[in-house]
User: Fold these one by one.
Assistant:
Number 1:
Amino acid sequence: MKTNIKKKYKFQSEIKKLLHIMIHSLYSNKEIFIRELISNASDAIDKLKFKYISKPEKYINNKKMYIRIKINKKKKKISIQDNGIGMTKKETIKNLGTIAKSGTKKFISSMKKKKKNNKLIGKFGVGFYSSFIVSKLVQVKTKKSLKKKKKPILWESKGKGKYSISYTKKKKYGTKVTLKIKKKEKIFLESWKIKNIIKKYSDHISTPIEIYKYDEKNKKYFWEKINKAKSLWTLNKNKITKKQYKNFYKYISNDNLNPMIWIHNKIEGNITYISLLYIPKKYNINIWNKKNKNGLKLYINRIYIMNNAKIFIPNYLRFIKGILDSQNLPLNISREILQNNNIVNKIKINLTKKILNMLKELTNKKKKYEKFWKEFGIILKEGPAEDLENKKKICNLLRFASFKNKTEKQNLSFKKYIKNMQKNQKKIFFFTCDNYKIGIKSPHLEIFKKKNIDVLILSDKIDEWMMNNIKEIKGIKLQSISKLNNTLKNIINENNITNNKKNKKFIKKIKKILKNKIKNVYLSKRLTKTPAIVISDDKDISTQMSKLFIAAGQNIKPLKYIFEINIKHKIIKYIKNINNIKIFKKWIKILFYQALLMERGTLENPNKYIKNINKLLILNYIK
């Protein structure tokens, strides 16, 4: 049987683009390939530990785990070897020939735009391919750590669109990555350089990292340990430097930026655990993807169990990165068991409170919190609906724009809004819209601007849903200004004009024309510059909420609005005196569709609206 024949494969098309950009672009920080390969080796060892615990009859566990680096200056090669779980042929093709679920298209487009492309590597699961930045040939020898023997595999590529796979000889289980270093990158063949890189990025890794070194005195080679090989989170907080915390974050998150803030806690008692939680500096591109792997790295008594354990933090805090090490959970725990475990629920409650307290402290640093809110505020807005127990704490963290604040930056808290309320103001007013620039010019605000009553301008898609779940703050109810109720009627003072006999006749004529298109007609004083608007009844859903339902694919009944007329406006005064019923109808329909356009941003039949305008123009101005 032929076992040595190399079979050639083509890379996934996106990898071809990726490799071309990597190899032909300039990188300000080429050394990250060491970090990425060591990170992969560490993960392989952690996976084997976990697999052996859950299925000792299937896997082989090495007594001494290690990551070993060997440099050959003459051949210009560097190899990184581990005795972790290894790979089968199928896994090798899957892991090294394709990039699945990694957002590669976005990665490639980002690399084209940015000069410092290295800041993106790892963030999309493409760290292994950074090897081609410094090497002209990459070889991967791997053997799966199974009791049922599988043939070792040799994977080779020059990073030019193809790779080959063949069977090879390998006594020890695990994976060995060998790089043929480019001439201009010979600095990476210096042992001092490799040591410095490892101490910079990987000093905290619990597996010993060793480099092959020659002892001049004893005239022999030996393996020298480089890293401290201690689990950082188990050390005393007072003995951990800021630099160590930051480097550890980069290791667990594949983020090249430093974290914004972190908390490190050890809880002892009935439930004993250590948590080290970070808030990233920047928004993760995949955070809205339902299949995206968010969550904590879970350890039990320092033994790695799983990545992306989502169950320990609520979904509205999914931007949190970090580790959790518990002494109270069984080593063979699965994701299914986690979901129904009482200890997990207690840990989740405690971690949530810790994170919310950390955010509360961050609000004291105004500029830093503004940066946090810009990146993660829209995610935190999911909190009031998701976490009823902590709703009050979450609401204190929320920030908004308002028309009196004169900026689209969301930096106004409920506390500050309440402090600035007018003496007789009984509600917190808000207005939901598609964007701030449209919202700030909405006719709905006219009376509030006139009376100097501030209104929160809410332009995120989630805002309407969020406000419906908050309802009140410190006993003060929230009120949408695009919905009509008694409070709003008192502010806009409309009852006295609607009861006028002449006005009643005018309203009756309008109702007859618009019929079932509307719910009611009011003559209002709320408008100062605009002739007419439409608003929702307090019992009906709002325009923004209906947009959300439609976007989600739900069928909802067409909204029937209340049509409000500004009786003092010149156009309305003119229309009121029109005796020709056909012309009167056209004017009313134009005003109604104009109001709908302002409210919705679109019309079901814009052609009909334009035809009515053109007819009026012909009647009045063209003879």
Note: The domain at 399-481 is CATH 3.40.50.11260 (Rossmann fold).
Number 2:
Amino acid sequence: MIKQCICTAIAAGWLFFSPCASAQTTTLVNPILTGFYPDPSVVQVGTDYYLVNSTFSYFPGIPVFHSKDLKNWKQIGNVIDRATQMDFMGEKLTRGLFAPAISYHNGTYYVTCTDIDHDGNFIVAAKNPAGPWSNPVRVPQVHGIDPSLYFDDDNKAYIVYNSDAPDRNPLYSGHRTIRIYEIDPVSLKVIGEEKQLVNGGVDLSKKPVWIEAPHIMKRNGWYYLYAAEGGTSVNHTEVVFRSKSVWGPYIAYENNPILTQKGLPDDRKDPITSAGHAQFVEGPDGKTYAIFLAVRPYEGDYYNTGRETFITPVEWKNDWPIINPDGKEIKYTYAVNYKEVKQKDALPQLGNFEYTLTFEKSLDPALLFMRTIDSSSFSLSKQNGLTMKLKPETVMELGNPSFIGKRQQHLYCTAEIELDFKPKSENEKAGLTILQDESHFYYLSKSLDKGKPSIQLFKASADGKKMEVIAQKQIAEDGKPVRLRIVAEGEFYSFYYTTGSSWELLQDKLDAKYLSTKTAGGFIGCLFGMYATSSGDQTTNSASFKYLKYSGNDPMFKKAAR
């Protein structure tokens, strides 16, 4: 297992206790998963909770997290962790796997998901949520996205999903429906005919858009169908319907939406926006909680950390669920009356934290490749750490370059590597990138300039087909490793290097909005990536990365800790 040297883990919620606080008091800290962890889905099995997220065209796909308290989460595996299950070669990073949903029934875990461009909707199953998971079983009758399973009291199973407008004839852009099939939980084949449950959204006359991410639950004799509406950006909401039959008719709650941050003041401090795509779960205290996605912009709708996973309490009033009942604005902390259960040997996920990954025997399951895994392209050792072969492929293409990345999890953070690399030509480069997608990244690397070793900083060109040098500095080749550092400060990135004991600034305060989801488009967040390329040339050269160090320093968490 990879050595995880956790230097400090200042999870903000651990600092809220007063001397007289009850041992049964816990403070939930938002986000519960910082960084690019969108489209959460959660299931409770006994006293255990399991959560999954979208990964689009990164590999491995669909992380699986475990918790005992809905606060402390540990990644225990990935659903798509074998290239024989699925790969995403030829797909842009923001395509691939959309919106998984996890469920459990009679000793088996299920994940439903959509491979948006190729396999469509599919189901995988496992007896152990840590894996291994089965090969995907396609469900071709299910046309649309965001499928989820519901198991009723009579052991019947249903698959509910976002689909086309009636007769595939939308009345307006974004006109969608929610539909349902019965499904055999063993063969995973649909039974009978499809039925439409919701047309458009809460009120078709108001032209609601993108009704999606549906889930069904049963409580007090009512079937609740709840779903996202409004699209996954600033107009994101969560709405709810109910019926006495799983087949409907479903009546919309008169006070919808039950969750949104739309309409709050734009100038509020440390805003949380774009909330929706929720799923309900019963907490250790028997109360209901909603786990959902939202974002933390550093300005307007600009954020580089992607859509993150949040939690709030839910109250039931007149048999309707009210998310975040004490006010519309999502809080960074919620006090709850149950015991905290920390995870052993888990990388920290919430508040401000820092850790160092070294690479000796295996890679942490949170690290990501592009589209598939090529195990022949890297090796691990105690002496050298992670050694990556330089491949001709680049991050600007739709293949599998020598790239291994971790999520940017804070608006203010630092990522650092130690690199041992001797380039043999100007096309050979190795170093640290901060990457949003194929055409939006900065790359801090060691290479050659006019035959001499140099530290170079690149930016993807406007056409996304090449890189442009924006700063460089020649260095002495003394055989010693070089360290590279990228510092994020909200709307800026700064780039440093050192071949000795003191850090040298190569480039200060480059535009971070260029790497924001708003500028780049798509659905993913930024990654810090260890990256080695020969830029189209064949080579036998390699680069070794001794460690990857990460430190987060977001001011909203410091404020909470005080």
Note: The chain has a mean pLDDT of 94.
